[in-house]
Amino acid sequence: MRPNEMTRRVMVGSVPLGGGAPCVVQSMLNADAQDVEANLEQIERLQEAGCEIVRMAIPNKKCLGAFEEVCKRSPLPVVADIHFSAEIAVEAARRGAAKLRINPGNIGGLEKTRPVLDAARAAGIPIRIGVNAGSLDDALALRPDLSLPEKLAASAVEYVRFCESCGFEDVVVSAKAHDVMTTVRTYRLLAQEIPQVPLHIGVTEAGTLFQGVVKSASGLGILLEEGIGDTMRISLTDDPVQEMRACWTLLAALDLRRRGPEIISCPTCGRCQVDLISMAKEVEARLSGVRAPIKVAVMGCVVNGPGEAADADLGVACGKGSGALFAHGKILRKVEESGIVDALMEEVRKFDQ
C-alpha cells in the first residue's frame, strides 16, 4: 500500500481526508480577518476554482466574531489558523471551526494543548499540528546532533504522541520549510515514523507566482509520486485563486486528480507559420469555465500535430493560414486560421455537456 492509503481517515466538515481519499486541495484566505463579506467573497472565488477546504487566520480575540459568522455562511469547511494563543483555539472550536491548526513552536507547550484537545473533541473536529522551520521551539532548534528535517519531524512526532496519549487521534500533521529538499526529507521521515497520521504537504514561503509554482511543484511532485500527502496547499505570494490553478495542474500532471481541461501545446519553432502563442493563450482563457477533464492540443505544425498529440481528446495542427482539427489523432476537418479557436471550442462544448 502507498503511504496515503494507510493513514487514518479524518473528516473536515464533509470532506474526507486520509485513508486513501483523493488528495484534498486547500488554500488560505488573505482578506482582513474582521471583514466578513470580503472573506466570504474570497471563499466563493476559491470554491469556483476548485478549493475544498479553506483556512482563515484568527490573529486576536477581536476577530472571533467575524470568524464565527464566516463559518456559519461559508460553503466550504473553514479551518481556524491559530498562533500563540491556546485560548483562541479553544474559542474557535466552539464557534464553528471545521478544524484547528496550531503550531507546536509557539502555542505554549504540551500542557497548553490539553484544553485545545478537549475543545476539539467536544466539537468533533480534527487538529492540524503545523510545524514550521522558522518557528521550532528552542529545545529542538538548538540541538546540533539533528538535521533540520529531523528536528521538524521530531517536533511533529512529539505532539502526535502527546495527542494520542490524551486519547485524541483526529490529528493531521504538516512540517514545512521554504527549502524544497528539506521539506521532502521531512515528510519522508514523517511517513515512516507516524504512518497512521494524515499529512498536509506544502513548501512554505515558496515565493511569488513563478518561483512559488516551480518550487512547490518540485517538492510536492516528488512526495505525491511517492504516495505521500493526503491534503496539499501550494503557497504563493499572489491571489489565492492562483494556488488552486497550480494545485489542480500539478495533480493532473501526475494523473492523480483532474478538474477541467489540460492543454497540450508545442513551444513553437521556425516551422510555425501562425501566431501560436496568442492562440494557445486564447484557448486557455476560453477553457477556464470548462469542467470536462479533457486534453486539448494546440500544435504549431504537422511535425507536432496529430502524431505527437494523438492521445489528446481534441486538437489542432496548424499550417500556413489554416489548421487541421483532429480528435484522438484523426483529422476532422480543415479550418481557416481566423476560425481555429472558435472551431476548437465548438468541439469542446460537445464534451462539456
From TrEMBL:
<feature type="domain" description="IspG TIM-barrel">
    <location>
        <begin position="7"/>
        <end position="248"/>
    </location>
</feature>
<keyword id="KW-0408">Iron</keyword>
<feature type="domain" description="IspG C-terminal">
    <location>
        <begin position="262"/>
        <end position="350"/>
    </location>
</feature>
<comment type="pathway">
    <text>Isoprenoid biosynthesis; isopentenyl diphosphate biosynthesis via DXP pathway; isopentenyl diphosphate from 1-deoxy-D-xylulose 5-phosphate: step 5/6.</text>
</comment>
<dbReference type="GO" id="GO:0051539">
    <property type="term" value="F:4 iron, 4 sulfur cluster binding"/>
</dbReference>
<dbReference type="InterPro" id="IPR011005">
    <property type="entry name" value="Dihydropteroate_synth-like_sf"/>
</dbReference>
<dbReference type="InterPro" id="IPR004588">
    <property type="entry name" value="IspG_bac-typ"/>
</dbReference>
<dbReference type="GO" id="GO:0046429">
    <property type="term" value="F:4-hydroxy-3-methylbut-2-en-1-yl diphosphate synthase activity (ferredoxin)"/>
</dbReference>
<feature type="binding site">
    <location>
        <position position="266"/>
    </location>
    <ligand>
        <name>[4Fe-4S] cluster</name>
    </ligand>
</feature>
<feature type="binding site">
    <location>
        <position position="308"/>
    </location>
    <ligand>
        <name>[4Fe-4S] cluster</name>
    </ligand>
</feature>
<protein>
    <recommendedName>
        <fullName>4-hydroxy-3-methylbut-2-en-1-yl diphosphate synthase (flavodoxin)</fullName>
        <ecNumber>1.17.7.3</ecNumber>
    </recommendedName>
</protein>
<comment type="similarity">
    <text>Belongs to the IspG family.</text>
</comment>
<dbReference type="InterPro" id="IPR045854">
    <property type="entry name" value="NO2/SO3_Rdtase_4Fe4S_sf"/>
</dbReference>
<keyword id="KW-0479">Metal-binding</keyword>
<comment type="function">
    <text>Converts 2C-methyl-D-erythritol 2,4-cyclodiphosphate (ME-2,4cPP) into 1-hydroxy-2-methyl-2-(E)-butenyl 4-diphosphate.</text>
</comment>
<dbReference type="GO" id="GO:0019288">
    <property type="term" value="P:isopentenyl diphosphate biosynthetic process, methylerythritol 4-phosphate pathway"/>
</dbReference>
<dbReference type="InterPro" id="IPR016425">
    <property type="entry name" value="IspG_bac"/>
</dbReference>
<dbReference type="InterPro" id="IPR058579">
    <property type="entry name" value="IspG_C"/>
</dbReference>
<keyword id="KW-0411">Iron-sulfur</keyword>
<dbReference type="InterPro" id="IPR058578">
    <property type="entry name" value="IspG_TIM"/>
</dbReference>
<keyword id="KW-0004">4Fe-4S</keyword>
<dbReference type="GO" id="GO:0141197">
    <property type="term" value="F:4-hydroxy-3-methylbut-2-enyl-diphosphate synthase activity (flavodoxin)"/>
</dbReference>
<feature type="binding site">
    <location>
        <position position="301"/>
    </location>
    <ligand>
        <name>[4Fe-4S] cluster</name>
    </ligand>
</feature>
<dbReference type="Pfam" id="PF04551">
    <property type="entry name" value="GcpE"/>
</dbReference>
<feature type="binding site">
    <location>
        <position position="269"/>
    </location>
    <ligand>
        <name>[4Fe-4S] cluster</name>
    </ligand>
</feature>
<dbReference type="GO" id="GO:0016114">
    <property type="term" value="P:terpenoid biosynthetic process"/>
</dbReference>
<keyword id="KW-0560">Oxidoreductase</keyword>
<dbReference type="Pfam" id="PF26540">
    <property type="entry name" value="GcpE_C"/>
</dbReference>
<keyword id="KW-0414">Isoprene biosynthesis</keyword>
<dbReference type="GO" id="GO:0005506">
    <property type="term" value="F:iron ion binding"/>
</dbReference>
